[in-house]
Amino acid sequence: MPSGTQQHQVTGPAGPLAVAVDHPVGPSRGVALLTHPHPLHGGTMDNKVVQTLARAHVLAGWTAVRFNFRGVGQSAGQYAEGVGEADDLLAVHRHWVGQQAWCLAGFSFGAYVASRFLSQQSEPSLSSLVLVGLAASRFDVPPLAPELRPKTLILHGDEDDTVPLQAALDWAKPQHVAVTVLPGVTHFFHGHLPWLRDVVQRHLHAVAPPC
Questions:
Q1: pLDDT confidence bin for 153, thresholds 50/70/90
Q2: What CATH class has 6-207?
Q3: Is the pLDDT assigned to residue 1 strictly greater than 50?
Q4: Per-domain residue ranges for the chain?
Q5: Hey, which end of the chain has fewer CB within 10 Å, N or C?
């Protein structure tokens, strides 16, 4: 990400949460919240896939807000199996979004947390949802609300060696939600990050075009 990344702290339910914010050139269209992979397997807000998602949103005109879940880096607390992490996401949402337009994107465990968070909201309206490498084989991922499905991009590599593609397809099929399959791509998008960035940018321009 650019050297202009700003470091912040947000008060979370288990203590302070470390936050990194990147701004677009020109006026911001709103806030994009980004969630990272599994804390017990080295996942942080500086994961290269998360940074690529942030970059895609910044290039599309959104302010990208990444944060470390509880117990990661400078964030207080300890791993809470996705339950507490959804509460962390709620705290960041309350602090940064307000009345602005907003997007949500998550990678792996972070995609599960994003889905869990949205399932708990009575009014989960947002401009775009991006779920990458959704950890459907490892967690009981809630279904998406029908109104969110047209705004959602689900990306999965056909050579994902961490979460089998079939798990994502099995989760999506009952909901009639499309899964965009990227051939030759592994879980961490080795060698394919520019492709990921471009696909997400196209999605953002399609579902939330500039005014």
A1: very high
A2: alpha beta
A3: no
A4: 6-207
A5: C
